[in-house]
Design a protein that fits this description.
Elements: E1 3-7, H1 16-20, E2 26-28, E3 35-37, H2 47-51, E4 57-61
Antiparallel strand pairs: 1-4, 2-3
């Protein structure tokens, strides 16, 4: 099935994950000021998880 990124409530909206995503699957929501991951675009590479300064992104098995 593969992995996909999930954002926790600890996200601070810094945008680091946006800049490292090779598929441009992440954006910062203007409504919540948190990262949102488009699971249809996410390839589960883990770059966002590695780059997040507050460990707010984790990779999970795609459901």
């Amino acid at each position: 099935m593969g992995r996909v990124g999930k954002v926790s409530s600890g996200c601070i909206g810094c945008g680091t994950c946006v800049s490292v995503c090779p598929k441009k699957a992440i954006k910062i929501s203007k409504k919540t000021n948190r990262a949102e991951i488009d699971t249809n675009k996410c390839i589960g590479c883990g770059r966002c998880e590695d780059a997040c300064p507050v460990s707010a992104i984790i990779l999970e098995e795609k459901k």
